[in-house]
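Re: weekly structure request thread

Next one in the queue (176 aa):
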Amino acid sequence: MIKSLRLVVILFCLSFAFKTEAQKLGYVDTEYILNKHPDYKIIQDELEKLGNQWKQQAKELDTEIKELYTQLQAEEVLLTEEMYKSRLAAIQQKEKESQAFNSRIFGINGEYYQKQAELLQPLQSKIYDALEVVSRKNNLGMLFDKASVPTGLIYTDPIHDYSEFVLAELGIEENN
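Done, posted below.
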């Protein structure tokens, strides 16, 4: 009785297994798509310009601190202990301000990364919408991103690459 019940369950499961259809898979390379998009170059240039301005400000703060240390060392013999400690405290305060500036601008949630996210968000939304359209047009069950590091894609057959379809959906022509 138990053997026949197992056999019925196995046959029942197999009948469902043969009725299901395989899902269609594909992948895209979002890094490739971004680099082909003309707006990305504009965004990169703007971020580079802004980043260079902030780096220059940080460099000026560091230079000022080094000059203050050099000046303190040169005048150390002439200063009283109280004057020396006062100047040293002022320099250390400048160092804290410099570190705070660097953290505020280039830190994990700094202004540079917030600006990057702000500028890239509309472009990423366009690309996502194009990915969705291409996935629906091609009846894809899953679409992977080759540029995403933790995907685990070791080998990809170019026949399953839908990056060019996404570029076409975005209206970007191939001009190699």
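Residues 24 and 140 are 5 Å apart (CA to CA). The chain has a mean pLDDT of 83.
Next request, please.
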